[in-house]
Amino acid sequence: MFQIKRICCIGAGYVGGPTCSVIAQMCPEITVTVVDVNESRIKAWNSDTLPIYEPGLKEVVESCRGRNLFFSTDIDSAIRDADLVFISVLSNPEFLAEGTAVRDLKEPDRVLIGGDETAEGQKAIRALCAVYEHWVPKERIITTNTWSSELSKLAANAFLAQRISSINSISALCEATGADVEEVAKAIGMDQRIGNKFLKASVGFGGSCFQKDVLNLVYLCEALNLPEVASYWQQVIDMNEYQRRRFACRIIDCLFNTVTGKKITLLGFSFKKDTGDTRESSSIYISKYLMDEGAKLFIYDPKVLKEQIIHDLSQPSISEDNPERVSELVTVTSDPYEACQSAHALVICTEWDMFKELDYDKIYKNMLKPAFIFDGRRVLDHLHPHLQSLGFQIETIGKKVTPARIPYTPAAAGPRITASDVPTSKAKV
What we know:
Pathway: Nucleotide-sugar biosynthesis; UDP-alpha-D-glucuronate biosynthesis; UDP-alpha-D-glucuronate from UDP-alpha-D-glucose: step 1/1
Distance between the termini: 40 Å
Oligomer: single chain
Keywords: Allosteric enzyme, Carbohydrate metabolism, NAD, Oxidoreductase
Order of helices and strands: EHEHHEHEHEHEHHHHEHEHHHEHEHEHE
Number of domains: 3
CATH architecture of the largest domain: 3-Layer(aba) Sandwich
Strand content: 5-15%
Number of strands: 12
Largest sheet: 6 strands, parallel
Protein name: UDP-glucose 6-dehydrogenase
Helix content: 40-55%
CATH class of the largest domain: Alpha Beta
GO biological process, one term: glycosaminoglycan biosynthetic process
Subunit structure: Homohexamer.
Strand order of the largest sheet: 9-8-7-10-11-12
CATH superfamily of the largest domain: NAD(P)-binding Rossmann-like Domain
Shape: globular
């Protein structure tokens, strides 16, 4: 059987970098070269400060970089010397979760390899299987044709996104009835037919894969004249957008129907904890809706750079073609206590563990009163009695915490956004 001795991976991003680093570590006899046209990214991979944050990744890279793992901008040479080129030869979709990518690569539920049903295609499949068999049991390596492989990737992410949108839809019902979505999720999750994974209600899913893959599925269904199927999966995206808008409207409503000129602290900007990735993060959209209302945002995230936050919020679709408003309304801080100083409300958008350990006595003393906490990730459930005893007004996803809100007289003009606004996300080519 043909043996692979040199691998080239095109793209040194969130997938290519970690995947090929683990392959290099697990297969010391194979030379792995990761190439990219982005010189600064390659320079970062060759430095002590990697371009992405992922628990355990730095240790993996440092264990084999310079021995059998290389990062380069010399794409032509790497392709020419390679026995296998990732991405362009086979369909080998990744099923990585950011924040646990290294563990997912080393202990995968399955490895899926698709290829042409030709002699050459089958030969390539067997060669790649041999690479993964260095550390993955054979029974976990699935081989299929190319279409099955690609659709499996789209369907897997669509099903996961669907579960999140499903529990988020129930969270709205819980808030209206007095139920607790965490209790509901636990009850239905104990049904073995359903299971308890991805039943955590929140401000909505983010990341590079879920929305992209669901919309790809929608587009594929429309192109193949399956409009009912396309509409079904589009609702997953629409519900996610509805949850974000609903949460933003709740903030505005609780702050006496206006946030214009008010300081609001956002804790967390990455789309989930243990990653610095902000792609499609719900924090971006919560920020947009609050900026639309004139709120002054103070943002803190332990891993996301200030430049990235400003870049995300300055995109035309977020800044309403007015990037200047970002400099007027947004301040990025490096200290969570500084971010909360003199704030009307703090909003938890990412479930970083550190947010459970903050000194909320200190935070409350330095906030304007009444002081509000909007927990979009349900990370402070265990602290509710203490927080209420301090004087915080608490609003969270899928549960009524504050029995009665502080009364107010509605302003003559309401907020620009409403939870019932038609979502703008549509299937794209």
